[in-house]
Amino acid sequence: MLKTIVNAAAAAAVAMTIGHAQDETPPSLTPDQERVAKRLIEQGLEDDTAWDVLTSLTTEIGPRLPGSDAEARARDWGVQKLKNLGFRNVRIETFELPYWSRVVEEARIISPFPQALTITALGQSPSTPEGGVTGAVVRFETLLDLEASDADLTDKIIFVDEGMARTQDGSGYGVAVQKRSRAAAIAAERGALGVLIRSVGTSSHRHPHTGGSVRGGASLAPAPAAALSNSDADQLARALQLSKQPVQVSLNIQSEFRQGAISGNVIGEIPGKTDEIVVVGGHLDSWDLGTGAIDDGAGVAIITAAAKLVGDLRGKPTRTIRVIMWGAEETGLHGARAYAEAHMDELDKHVFASESDFGAGRIWQFQSGFGDGAVAKAKVFQRILRPLAIGPGDNKAFGGPDVTPLRMAGVPVAGLRQSGWDYFDLHHTPDDTLDKVDPEALQQNVAAWAATIYLASEMEGDFGRLPPKEDAE
């Protein structure tokens, strides 16, 4: 799908290689732009809109599984919220997707040490036979060990015990998350009954972390897959170490699949003087274990509140500011892909894109992803944000998951990187709830985003174009 989008974008704009900032001179802001950006930061640090929006979303709607009735209510909520806050051209752009939900998730050590294990089914996991399966557990310390093994796994239950490193930037996730999809595929290929993984998370609480396993639903036929809480992964590993016989575990996962479910992106705008577009947003859906406060209700609230501050300024912004509450991110970036496809003909007008999707921790770095000839402009953002204890980053910004199709089509991006020290204690768990959000940290985010959105809308000249890339899938 994205190959078509990229080709269209490439025809509309010349692809340029990312340059180096050392040969560029940062542009100057006008005295008025300087004053307004600083004032937006001051206002953001005192603004309660994000907290109010987040409280409303997590309380009035709660969990928002992609394609569910709850996600549909969240879209209606988003439309009303954006209208009430003064956004224009508010609408829902719908799309279809496969729907998955958990029905039953149970695991027990049957012998030699009978006891329950705390698990959660991974997204898109198929069901076991009704009543579950029972098999001997085969443990692998890492995914690499599983991939390299030639052991007979027929009718066994695979246990991948690989842990995740705690890091500020969340880089440990990229390594640990690979087992979430790969292990289920290997299990199916090699005749295993199912797979258990140590949760892709850093919490020591007895909360397993869910997340997608294999995209696309039951047609891909992965093995039934579930995540153990870190505590239960420790327990199962100890049982295997102490037992003098095979450890037998029962696993019962029952899930529902349905094709043709409806999701959608909620969009609101602050119309500008030109046809250029600045896209910012967060994803509206969430997993169903918590209330989606951290992932990604906070992002939705931060962007909405920050854009409102810019919209409250006198007069129109130079560029149109488009706020998107993306749908169905958790099960495969469905909303991001649908948006890029629907707006293919205007992607050349998208001059800046970014998403807030890493919780509600304080922002500690501004990272750009600008094209050749525009990299030095990042220094302007970095200078304005420095009083918020936000340091400079490089020009390798990711931009956010839902920005991926835009970035691949050549749209320049930015990343306001939040502290993730405790993010993966909460991410995709029952602990993803409003009480984990620090209101002052939320305000720091709003302040930083308000200034960023304003500069993206007003800075003279564009931010270059990135070399378009084809979809890897």
Explain this structure to me?
With 473 residues, this protein is α/β, with parallel strands linked by helices. The protein has two domains: 2-98 and 260-458, Zn peptidases (Aminopeptidase), CATH 3.40.630; 113-246, Glucose Oxidase, domain 1. It is 33% helix and 23% strand. It has 14 helices and 14 strands. The protein has helices spanning 2-12, 31-44, 49-61, 69-84, 143-148, 171-176, 178-189, 230-242, 293-311, 334-342, 378-385, 404-408, 423-426, 439-458, and strands spanning 88-111, 115-117, 119-121, 133-140, 157-160, 194-198, 225-228, 248-270, 277-283, 320-326, 350-355, 363-369, 391-392, 413-418. Strands 1, 2, 3, 4, 5, 6, 7, 8, 9, 10 and 11 form an eleven-stranded mixed sheet that branches. It is elongated, with a radius of gyration of 23 Å. The termini are close together. The model is unreliable at 1-22 and 215-220 (pLDDT under 50).
